[in-house]
Design a protein that fits this description.
By secondary structure, the protein is α/β, with parallel strands linked by helices. Among the domains are: 68 residues, no CATH class; 227 residues, P-loop containing nucleotide triphosphate hydrolases (Rossmann fold); 104 residues, no CATH class. The strands form four sheets. The chain has an eight-stranded mixed sheet with strand order 6-7-8-3-9-10-12-11, with helices on both faces.
Length: 689
């Protein structure tokens, strides 16, 4: 046993919530500790109790929550015995929280500098001028021009900068424990990589400890020292990050890791998935809470709750059959379902083409016109070309602000292009939605990131699907035919017929997304535009949706335009990728070619920032300086030159780069010759330890 005193330690901790006048257990019998300089990962699906446990460790539960048993020791001091007034002296000084949504935790009417200073002054009990302290803190979290940023308001900052400000606020008092609750979920992969580096450095510099709450196993593998896996309020498995990812033993842990899409997977493979959902607080099984979803459960598992046992070297597990799994006698994973494939050859080579697409947003005000100020435009999409092959998926990737969603909205008709030509099924596709024929409207559908925004809360699932079927039908259709089609659509997305009578509020996030996909396929479209369809979902639900999209592509013969900043998910589903930066396509090619050398320096940085679910994997990390420039002020020459790690000099600043042909349709927009890109990137990859 180590003599080091943990920064935070929980012993036999249980948490209850009062719902409908009844106390229900949410977190049961948790024991864990975090030492100085350690970052402890807390993972599991939504509803597993991760956030509840994190708040309990802070003694910061909602009014209807209580710690029913156990203790929480902050450097030996039991927080469960402290009053709210006593905890107010600890929150923000010894324990700080970095939330998921940075903007919601910042006061829109205060400048950044004033907000950070207020936190320090409150806990330091001083009114001294803290301006220089705030400037230094902003500089430490990697914000350029901190003197200027300190005078700005939250809405004037990018998402990445807002997150860095919340980190500065959390660390200004030098807390002992930093609780990180999904702090990078909404960030681009490049910004996320920089923020994760920052967490490591700051926790080390302050000799502090970190609790990282996330469902992103790739991030946890690269950031954390130890990991605890939770399910239905209980610890399933806990170990060092290397042990857990190398030899996951609990069926739930193994299922989560197997659900992760991997960039190297063949596009025809399927991901293992876990059937079912977590039980509600009022319906927890008497035995093992995971037994109803476990592929190797016995009657013993249903009847008797397993104890949390020590396997070896601090590796703990809660499973009746862990010894058989550890010995390799049984597999903890579900079998992969057979996938229906289609051998029908495509009728045409390209289902959709877009050439020379431009979209500028006019930002001129009435005062600008009166004063004859020079016109100001946001260059959202600038001379972009896309080609989507029949019965295939084109992945469109790039950071926020690169123009991906605007280009997608132009294609589906939600935005009007300033210029350019589009064709769908070799027919001209009008820029204006009102000018498109009903036939073309049927052939082009969209799945949005948030299904809540597209489902009417007052319509049942059946009514929503039926309305779409009737509206897009090219001939009269009877009520009976509509009902049959609704059932067929639900079955196609693996939902039973009784879901037709449910309302959106009765569905989980994954079920809502399945309904949205079913509605998109109601008219058997040729092209489905999917804008971040899995970004808000747990990894287990994400696997179900990705498999579903593959199945429907094979069964229905549809093509996809998939927009995402999750490059692993894109590589799993897409067979062709286009990389977009500041309104322009900078690289396009086969998925395997784009992810390997040679690639555009921007693509190279994106790929290097993918958080691999393997803590032992060490590869060259390319960190881009600063945020993506404003589309109001496009840099001259190569648009990427202000952040490019392979910057050549004046030619990059003054001359637009040419397209380079890397073969087999793989094109790269860069001043560096293909052979030189191969030499540079291959040499660095070979030299990676």
């Amino acid at each position: 046993m180590s003599d080091i005193q943990p920064v935070i330690a929980a012993h036999n901790l249980s948490v209850d919530y009062r719902l409908n006048k009844v106390w229900l257990n949410a977190v049961r019998d948790i024991t864990l500790h975090i030492n100085p300089l350690q970052i402890h990962g807390l993972v599991g699906e939504s509803g597993s109790g991760k956030s509840t446990l994190a708040l309990a460790l802070m003694n910061y539960l909602a009014a209807n929550g209580r710690i029913s048993s156990g203790e929480v020791l902050l450097e030996g001091d039991d927080l469960t015995q402290k009053s709210v007034n006593e905890m107010r002296q600890i929150w923000g000084s010894k324990i700080s929280l970095v939330p998921q949504d940075a903007l919601s935790s910042l006061n829109p009417s205060y400048t950044i500098g004033n907000q950070i200073a207020e936190v320090f002054q409150h806990h330091a009990k001083t009114r001294i001028n803290t301006r220089q302290l705030v400037i230094d803190m902003l500089r430490r979290v990697g914000i350029a021009d901190p003197e200027v940023v300190a005078q700005r308001y939250p809405h004037q900052l990018s998402g990445g900068m807002q997150q860095r400000v919340t980190i500065a606020m959390a660390l200004i008092t030098q807390p002992r424990l930093l609780v990180l609750d999904e702090p990078t979920t909404a960030l681009d992969v490049t910004t996320q990589a920089v923020i994760l580096d920052l967490f490591r450095d700051l926790i080390r510099d302050h000799n502090a400890a970190g609790l990282y709450v996330s469902h992103d196993l790739g991030v946890v593998a690269q950031l954390c020292d130890d990991v605890t896996v939770m399910y239905a309020g209980e610890i399933m498995e806990s170990a060092s990050v290397e042990t857990l990812f190398k030899r996951p033993t609990h069926p739930y842990t193994a299922g989560l890791l197997a659900s992760l899409p991997k960039p190297t997977q063949d596009t025809e493979t399927r991901l293992p998935t876990m059937p079912g959902v977590q039980p509600s607080l009022a319906d927890r099984p008497a035995g093992c809470v995971f037994a109803p979803r476990c592929p190797i459960a016995l009657q013993l598992c249903a009847d008797q709750k397993p104890a949390l046992e020590i396997m070896r070297d601090g590796h703990t597990i809660r499973c009746h059959r862990w010894r058989e799994i550890d010995a390799g006698e049984i597999s903890p994973l579900h079998d992969i379902d057979e996938k229906i494939t289609s051998e029908r050859p495509p009728d045409i080579d390209y289902i959709m083409t877009a050439e020379g697409m431009h979209k500028y947003f006019d930002e001129n005000t009435l005062w600008d016109r009166i004063t004859r100020r020079k016109d100001r435009y946001v260059h959202a999409v600038d001379d972009a070309d896309l080609r989507i092959r029949a019965r295939s998926t084109l992945g469109l990737v790039g950071e926020s602000g690169s123009g991906k969603t605007t280009l997608a909205r132009i294609i589906v008709g939600l935005e009007t292009a300033d210029s350019g030509k589009m064709h769908l099924l070799e027919k001209s596709l009008a820029n204006h939605l009102s000018a498109r024929s009903r036939d073309l409207l049927r052939e082009l559908q969209m799945v949005f990131q948030n299904p809540n925004d597209t489902l009417n809360p007052y319509h049942t699932v059946g009514q929503a699907l039926a309305r779409t079927i009737r509206r897009l039908s090219d001939k009269p259709i009877s009520k009976q035919q509509v009902q049959e089609r609704v059932i067929d659509l639900l079955k196609s997305v693996r939902l039973s017929a009784d879901y037709a009578d449910r309302y959106p509020e009765e569905l989980s996030g994954g079920e809502k997304q399945r309904v949205a996909i079913a509605r998109a396929f109601a008219a058997n479209p040729a092209l489905v535009v999917a804008d971040e369809p899995t970004s808000a979902l747990d990894v287990s639900v994400q696997a179900v949706i990705l498999n579903l999209l593959k199945d429907l592509r094979a069964q229905e013969g549809a093509s996809y335009l998939l927009i995402s900043h999750d490059l692993a998910a894109v590589a799993y589903l897409a067979d062709w990728i286009a990389v977009m930066y500041l309104g322009q396509i900078v690289e396009v090619g086969d998925t395997e070619d784009v992810y390997d050398a040679p690639s555009h320096p921007y693509t190279e940085a994106l790929v290097s920032a993918i958080p691999e679910p393997d803590p032992t994997l060490k590869r060259k990390q390319i960190r881009l300086d600063g945020d993506i420039p404003s589309a109001r002020n496009i840099p001259p020459g190569c648009r990427f030159h202000t952040r490019c790690p392979r910057y050549l000099g004046d030619i990059c600043k003054t001359k637009a780069p040419p397209w380079r042909d890397a073969g087999d349709g793989h094109l790269i927009r860069c001043h560096i010759e293909i052979d030189e890109l191969i030499r540079l990137q291959s040499a660095e990859e070979a030299g990676t330890v």
